[in-house]
Amino acid sequence: MKVPRFSGICFGLFVIVLLSLDCGGGSGGGGASNGSPKDCDLLGAFRITDAPSWACDDFPAVGETVTVANAGDGTVLRAGTMELPMAASPEMGACTFVAHGCHSVPAVNGQGGRYLDVQFTISKTATGIRLVSQTTDVDDGSPGACQTPAGTTESYEAVPLSGCQPAGTYTAASAAILKSGSCQIAWQAGDVGITSAADGKFDLDWAGTDVEGLTLDKSACTLRGSKGISSGTSFDIWSWNGAERHLQIQLQITPSGLIGEAEDALDGATSDGLSCSGGTYSLQASASAARPVVALDSTCSTSPPSVCGDGVCDPGESCRGCTADCVCKAGATCAPDGVCRHVCSLPTESTDCASGERCSPDNPSYPTVIQPFDTLHCVPEGNARAGEACSETNSCRAGLVCHVPVRGTRYTCAAPCGQDFPSCPAGRTCGEQGDGSGVGSYPTAVMACE
Predict the structure, then answer these.
(1) In the chain, which stretches have pLDDT less than 50?
(2) Which of 103, 140, 262, 285 has the smallest count of CB within 10 Å of its CB?
(3) pLDDT tens string 129-173
(4) Which of 119, 174, 125, 102 is nearest to 20 (CA)?
(5) What contacts 123, CB < 8 A, 6 or more positions away?
(6) Distance (Å, rounded) from C-alpha 240 to C-alpha 299?
(7) Residue 276 contacts by C-beta under 8 Å, 6 or more apart in sequence?
(8) What is the C-alpha to C-alpha distance for residues 165 and 195, in angstroms, rounded to an integer?
(9) What CA dihedral angle connects 196, 77, 91 and 137, to 10 degrees?
């Protein structure tokens, strides 16, 4: 199987199955079923509230904005680092659209190659939109490169950016400022995450400080919550570094991020000497900014590269480079050239090898020397006849070896002789294989008629 990838995009295949909902407000299949993204209320900016945790860099993450917008004579989807042209897909349901694009970068000296073929299915939901992705993504396998897991099914949920939707990721660029009071607790800069919880509540992680069960005032688009504060209906003790800590927090969600306050206090000093008789901190975090996008081609102009491990021995793969896909059949082994070849022996060459093949050694360092312990495989025979010059045994036709006498320097094709071979013709003797210098020999190598 062959599969696509991109800039920092991610070795692999993931398919995401669509559950589309009718956005037309009825089952009669009115104008919306064949309408435009505008008719289906799909145009606009949306914030991702749910995404695969493993998604590669080019794909949208929780908290990021995706956009469906008119461009020229058509409509495009901007998601992650990709811009893809959209088209209606009525066979998949009312108000369902498909955005498809392709990006390929050829490898240079075996590095930097990338092939990405991605398709998003976009449909209307009760709360916003759903993106379902089917992707072929292959890169050169560089260390650290993200690979899309094969056979994974995932989807992305997004809500209108204009609505009061706090869930997402934010960034506190600097530590919180102590606005009033006396407190040595540090509200650090870093990543801020808000996730949906049970009963319509939300959980907050502010650069390592966790507060659960915040309530949302939709009219003011504000989250409120506390930790370590008991009431008549609840008992809440927060032990923090050896001291009891009490926190009340309020955060307003705006298009640009979060702004709010935290009232913090400690009952006594902590184990490392921090004190906080009570202080109010100003909190601020920015929403994830949209990343620059690259417009993908509407069609793929090249074929995807081979993928080792998909069970198919594609062109460019071999039994040496990809044993998972290219498995040699019974009677054959993987030769040094990466081709599955039948094992053979010189005495039984005519029965071991097919017509047009010969039995040759695998050792390329000694192309004319065949030792009894060498592994031999059937390879295409050469063109040189008996007595004709040769540079290696593979140059000779079947039934011959490339031979030089001990006292000689000229290599020619000759019939092998000795044990297990026929006797030499009259007037010929069975001689050892020389080394080409005119004085040395390989006494254990296969001999030939001289």
Answers:
(1) 1-33, 141-144, 149-151
(2) 140
(3) 999 988 776 665 444 455 554 445 678 998 887 768 788 889 999
(4) 125
(5) 18, 19, 20, 21, 23, 92, 93, 95, 96, 97, 129, 130, 132
(6) 57
(7) 182, 183, 184, 185, 245, 264, 265, 266
(8) 10
(9) -90
**Two tokens, residue 440:** 């040395």
Sign of the torsion formed by the C-alpha atoms of 152, 155, 156 and 157:
negative
pLDDT one-digit tens code per residue, 345-400: 999 999 999 999 999 987 767 888 998 888 899 999 999 999 999 999 999 999 99
Please give the radius of gyration of the chain, using alpha carbons only, rounded to the nearest integer. 36
Bridge-based pairing state of the strands 412-414 and 401-403 = antiparallel
The pair of three-digit structure tokens given for residue 280, joined into one six-digit string: 């109010």
Query: What is the reported pLDDT for 270?
Result: 96
pLDDT score at 309: 72
Q: What tokens were used for 155?
A: 């989807």
**Residue in the structure block whose two tokens are 């100003």:** 282
Q: Which of 310, 290, 204, 305 is nearest to 253 (CA)?
A: 204
Structure token digits, residue 290: 């949209």
Beta-sheet strand order (sheet of 430-431)? 416-417, 447-449, 430-431
